[in-house]
Design goal:
Involved in chromosome partition. Localize to both poles of the predivisional cell following completion of DNA replication. The chain has 270 residues and is α/β, with parallel strands linked by helices. The protein is built from 12 helices and 7 strands. It has a 7-stranded mixed sheet, sandwiched between helices.
């Protein structure tokens, strides 16, 4: 069935929160892994100069021959940059610290906010057959994050279940509004996912209550628990779904993927 709201090509989702330590990269890695596990073909674009998503998906720095820096600033074709990971259906555009200078180099470019948008819509994109592209944004509202939002159809916001969690959202929402007004009117908020949730902790419960009261259905029903296996998995360069497939963290990211696909069923149908 034809769906006029369905993006042409893969749906592109920016995973963003300018506050560090909220589980953004962890969510990018494990949400992508969960989607791939249930048959979706997923590309992770590592747009963070720290390159933690690249490491967490098993690609060591010495093995990153071409990166997001080359994609944005040197016009490399995607086919020269996309790397396979150790998991079926899951692919990666890696990052290195070279990307840390991109903000300065982008300023002089007239199309500085549209470089990722154009790069992810290269004519050779169709050959890959991706269902979803997940962009792991840096923990700041810089030109790289703006590039991600201009390129994306929607923004997924990981929200740490701790004090002051909601306060940082206002600036992020303002940036999303500015991008809508200036460059990407169709950008929407995919949802907010609560991370590092501890059901035994009154503070986590209060943050959840506040988030649901303020943001309503934007908050996913699935919450990601604070889980030692989730924390350990990156040091073994693998998603938690591979590191400990039956852990609470792995089960939670699978549930998030199912809930997400349920909300997007019109886009994944046919």
């Amino acid at each position: 069935m034809y769906d006029p709201t369905r993006p042409v090509g893969p749906k592109i989702i920016a995973i963003a929160n300018q506050k560090g330590g909220v589980g953004k990269t962890t969510t990018a890695i494990n949400f992508a892994s969960a989607l791939a596990e249930i048959g979706q073909k997923v590309l992770v674009v590592d747009l963070d100069p720290q390159g933690n998503a690249s490491t967490g998906l098993g690609l060591m720095p010495d093995d990153r021959n071409a990166t997001t820096y080359d994609l944005l600033l040197d016009d490399f074709p995607l086919s020269d940059i996309i790397c396979k990971t150790g998991q079926d259906n899951l692919f990666l555009v890696p990052s290195t610290t070279d990307l840390s200078s991109a903000d300065i180099e982008l300023i002089a470019n007239e199309k500085r906010s549209y470089l990722l948008h154009d790069a992810l819509r290269q004519t050779d994109m169709d050959q890959f057959g991706f269902d979803f592209i997940l962009i792991d944004c840096p923990p700041s509202l810089n030109l790289l994050t703006v590039n991600a939002m201009v390129a994306a159809h929607s923004v997924l916001v990981p929200l740490q279940s701790e004090f002051f969690a909601l306060e940082g959202l206002s600036q992020l929402m303002l940036t999303i509004r500015e991008v809508r007004q200036s460059a990407n009117p169709a950008l929407r908020i995919e949802g907010v996912v609560l991370t590092m949730y501890d059901a035994r902790n009154n503070l986590s419960q209060q943050v959840e209550t506040d988030a649901r009261d303020n943001l309503g259905d934007l908050v996913f029903k699935t919450v990601i628990p604070r889980n030692v296996r989730v924390s350990e998995a990156p040091s073994y360069a693998m998603p938690v779904l591979e590191y400990d497939t039956n852990s609470k963290g792995a089960l939670a990211y699978r549930a998030l993927a199912r809930e997400f696909l349920g909300k997007n069923e019109t886009m994944t149908a046919a």
